Amino acid sequence: MPNGKLAGVRCVNLDDQNACRLHGSSSYPQVCKDFTPRRYICGKSNLEAYKKISILEKATE
Ligand code: SF4
User: Fold this and answer.
1) Predicted confidence (pLDDT) per residue in 21-38, tens digit
2) Which residues pair with 14 in a beta bridge?
3) Ligand 1 midpoint to CA 56 (Å)
4) Closest CA to ligand 1's atom 4
5) What is the pTM assigned to this prediction?
6) pLDDT value of position 12
7) Which residues of 24-61 are buried (b: 16+ CB within 10 A; e: fewer)?
8) Local structure of residue 10 (DSSP, 8 states)
9) Ligand 1 center–CA 27 separation, angstroms
10) How far is the CA of 25 from the centre of ligand 1 (A)?
């Protein structure tokens, strides 16, 4: 996403399985490389991760 990802907007690089299409490629964004997944942020499921990250995005938008 050339102009960055807005809070609450699904990343265009996610595929139907919620996997990143850019992971491992030279186009993988630095901000994503710098993010270390943690259980307290990501939870145990996609839904839990979505809820927790939405709260963080809302707090930092
Ligand atoms: S890791 Fe980064 S580029 Fe990949 S889907 Fe997530 S936000 Fe998008």
Assistant:
1) 999 999 999 999 999 989
2) 20
3) 16
4) 20
5) 0.78
6) 95
7) eeeeeeeeeeeeeeeeeeeeeeeeeeeeeeeeeeeeee
8) P
9) 10
10) 12
